[in-house]
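Quick one: structure for this chain?
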Amino acid sequence: MFIFDFFIKAGPIVMIPVIITIIGLVFRLPLTKAFKSGLIIGIGFAGINLVIGLLTSNLGPAAKAMVKNFGIKLDVLDVGWGSIAAVTWSSPIIPILIGTIFVANIILLILKATNTLDVDIWNYHHMAIVGVMTYFVTENILVSILAAASMAIITFKLSDWSQPLVSKYFGIPGVSLPTVSAMSSLIIAVPLNWLIDKIPGVNKINLDMKNAKKYLGFFGEPMIMGLLLGCAIGALAKYDLTRIFQVGVNMAAVMVLIPKMVALFMEGLMPISEAAKKLTSKKFKGRKFFIGLDAAVVVGNPEVITTALILIPLTILLAIVLPGNRLLPFADLAVIPFRVALVVALTNGNLFKNIIIGLGTMSAILLAGTATSPVLTALAKTVGINVAGGGLISSFASTSLTASFLVFKVFTSNLWITLPVFIVIFAVVWIYMDVIRPKKTHQSGDEVSL
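Got it. Here's what it folds into:
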């Protein structure tokens, strides 16, 4: 228990080097190489976090200023994912839920039901919060464990199915992203993408960022686009000229620095990846394992940042006009890059699709966040998180995420009806994705992709 508490308090920057070193040893790397790989990956992750900190520390205040300037009056306050994570880790049943998620991953690997080895233990809280909120509503520990286990199974399978996007679009082979806050968007994005592709004329629109670079020349460079979009957000925040350019230059820096940090990250990952391939080809007849990592490794992609910068003011406007929404976007506006990263990969960087689908995914988050805010607010009060005036709280995380919301509703509604329906639907999707679809793809000669 002491070791568990130590790593949770230390956070992912300490956990990742240790876990990667252990994985390297399991894959028969010498201790020195395994440790070096773990340390390099940890350094790369630290660098990514620093740049994301630069992103959020500039975008966060600017986004809040925009909210104030637009004069939005909504009664559910977005308090940010960090507050929700604090609620999750403060739960008395959290050790049980974290253990459940870890064991579920190991069992699925042994049964060959997943290829994702999720080493991103810190982000287990995205899965655990479903169990925590279920327990708060039902007061049934068994039901809450089943909810967390179901969330874990869905997460690992979606990670497997979306891994080709990570490999092909972001150029990170052997890695999947079991970060619920990023991956959950695909539940809305995949059908919306299919629908757009079926609309004549609309399906021909392709605002590709790579083409933008070619046509826009100087203004199509990632750093220049970061500068311009950052300055635009600063202007909407009604900053003075100095602060407008500060936001702009910092956004330009994000565009340049994140790819360099990811390159460092990949340097550390390659020895692990090669060792894994060698061992699995020998011991597991060529079976592939994906190392499950934080979606932070892809959110700095220029297309992702560009999409997010455009969506931030649009999300504020969306919150005003969306029927049924009461959630005021605030603290989590700065983490919209996480919510749209895999959407960008799904559309192959089509900015037109990114914005349309991004608004669809954000609509789902706003409505789910509104619907579950009473439960989340009551739960948060039990650990001392409250809002002045007794208002409701939510975020762009927890059960505001589509996958988490659906699982939470299954286990807090009429379980004898919702659970069988949930099992049947998920089983059909699983069979289609793992059995039927690969056969169709193999017969057609196409590459497997969402």
